[in-house]
Amino acid sequence: MVAACLTGWAHSQFGKLDNVDAEVLLADVAQAALDDAGLSPEQIDSIHVGTFNGGFLYQDFPSSLVFNRISGLRFKPATRYENACATGSAAVHGGLQSIEAGKATHVLVIGFEKMTELATPQVGEVLLKCSYAREEAGIPGGFAGVFGTIAQAYFERYGDQSDALARIAAKNHRNGSVNPYAHMRRDFGYDFCRNVSEKNPFVAGPLKRTDCSMVSDGAAALVISKADVARTMPKSVGFRAAVQVNDYLPLSRRDPLAFEGGQHAWRQALGVAGVSLRDLSLVETHDCFTIAELIEYEAMGLAKPGQGANVLAEGLTEKNGLLPVNPSGGLKAKGHPVGATGVSMHVMAAMQLTGTAGEMQIPNAKLAGVFNMGGAAVANYVSILEAR
User: Fold this and answer.
1) Residue 113 pLDDT greater than 90, yes or no
2) 80-to-21, 72, 107, 225, 249 alpha-carbon distances in Å
3) Whether the model pTM is above 0.90
4) For residue range 135-145, what is the model confidence (pLDDT) as tens digits?
5) Span 249-272, mean pLDDT?
6) Which phi and psi angles does 40 have, rounded to 5°?
7) For residues 377 and 258, what is the distance between their CA atoms, to the nearest angstrom?
8) What pLDDT is attached to residue 110?
9) Are 235 and 354 in contact (CB under 8 A)?
10) Distance (Å, rounded) from C-alpha 256 to C-alpha 266?
């Protein structure tokens, strides 16, 4: 049990936000989270900002940017976090650790990214910095190429999984079609996702366009409070567990199809929380590519290695299944602004657990799992959240 709770949250629209400055995006979502928690800026003890950047924006050193528009936060300690695509969860953990260390009662966590100011090929070059440069920097297609290679290896070991990947894409786009924050609010259907076409070409290996998350801008924010104080606040969502596990960076030093770091993170988190997968009402998982979600079924223990497709064939992860996965639409439909992603996943889970998820809502949601990863299962974060 973690002695901290989510007590406020906010989420921007995800998408191509051409007319929104990063500084404004950051401040607007921060102020909305403070308002949601019913706190003034002066009541915040520290600020934890997650952004990957890596060249998306010229402006770096973002930790104090929020002061420009929320002057009440001035002179508070503020720190920037980065852990590849798990950057948002790294910021969440930084906030939790401040509370657990007794240094804070309330912390503000912000995740944001502005990716679309670069052309798509340049975005791919920036993201490929999250690979092991000595061995993987030359992979064509950026991180799509990395996961295309993983998908091809999975197909070779376990057989063609095109049907399974299309089911994941169709499921997540169907779920995302009712998410008001999603970059892509469109139900493409299974047939479109399954078949190669002019609008759905192959991108890397067996991965088609519908297998790949989009280049997005966006932000999300959380207020995290000490558990005893949270009990006096209008709403709270508790952390039953918050676990981080890192693995080797080079793919050559591990089995890229096993996501062993994710396995360890899930095992530890469920153990700390004292629950099993069967107890969870939903999971928000890191579907940067559909092959990632497929392997994550196996890493979390829903299926044995190579049998993730059975989970889909049985409908277990559908919105009305035994364990709905990505009812928000996931990264696939919601979008993947790198630094915002982990924070966004926690916001989506908190909305479910407080019954405020609108058309995304899973009935009677009590426990939610969040899995956010950086790289190909290098930095792995699992949270188990509960309704309070």
Assistant:
1) yes
2) 18, 19, 14, 19, 22
3) yes
4) 998 888 889 99
5) 98
6) -90, 160
7) 9
8) 98
9) yes
10) 17
Instruction: Determine the Cα–Cα distance for residues 166 and 365; give it in Å rounded to an integer.
Output: 27
For residues 11 and 219, give the distance between their C-alpha atoms in angstroms, rounded to a whole number: 6
Place of tokens 């998820």: 357
Q: Beginning with the edge strand found earlier in the chain, give each strand of the sheet holding 106-113 in spatial order.
A: 78-81, 46-50, 106-113, 218-226, 4-11, 237-246, 379-387, 367-374, 282-285
d(CA 238, CA 204): 40
Distance between first and last Cα of the chain:
13
Return the amino acid letter for 249. L
Q: Which of the four pLDDT bands, split at 50, 70 and 90, describes residue 90?
A: very high
Task: Phi first, then psi: give them for residue 369, nearest 5 degrees.
Answer: -105, 145
Nearest-10 crossing angle of helices 120-127, 142-158: 70
CA angle 32, 37, 43 (to 5 degrees): 95
Vertex 300 angle, CA 98 and 341, to 5° = 50
Amino acid letter, residue 217: D
Residues found in the chain: 388
4-115+215-231 folds as: Peroxisomal Thiolase; Chain A, domain 1 (3.40.47)
Q: What is the residue whose two structure tokens read 């929380």?
A: 273
